[in-house]
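Bug report

Summary: structure tokens for Enoyl-CoA hydratase differ between web form and batch submission.
Environment: batch mode, default settings.
Steps: 1) Submit the sequence below via batch. 2) Compare with the web form result.

Sequence submitted:
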Amino acid sequence: MSPFPSKWNDIMKIKKPIIAAVNGYALGGGCEVALMCDIILAGEKAVFGQPELKLGTIPGMGGTQRLIREVGKSRAMEMILTGSYFLDAQEACQRGLASRVVAGSNADLINEAISVAGKIAKQSRPAVIIAKAAVNSAYETSLQEGLKQEKALFGATFALADRKEGMSAFIEKREPQFVHK
């Protein structure tokens, strides 16, 4: 039985986008929690790693499964099997683990995370939820299954009032006024 709560994977079931702002050590469980988030913004001091083998155990909250999808098999194997802290902010960004590096203080990083959240909040809420589901489908299934899921989700957006408003706003060259329906 795992000593960790079994609900960690429920983070990925949250329909709203989750943004991680990392500016320090995200090791072991901290790295695994970051991997569960939708967007990772890395401060200049961010360091990612899976040092569990140094403790005689392995990552237990999805690290062996998610890290390989982000940084590739060889890099994930080296990180996990040596327990070394390899990914600094720049490498995390270059390898696709982090969205980008945010220069400055912790406050600058948090402000940027809030800014990204604000940009997302301006979009149609149902469309954001649907887009997140489509991307997660690609992450968790085969290409063919993901394409089927995307097609079905795309079709579902045509029933949204926000899709109609978005298209009208585009044609009329104005900002959309989404009603989140």
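Above is the batch result. After comparison, the two runs are identical; trailing whitespace caused the diff. The first strand starts at residue 19 and ends at 22. Helices lie at 29-36, 63-71, 73-82, 89-94, 106-121, 125-140, 143-157, 161-171.
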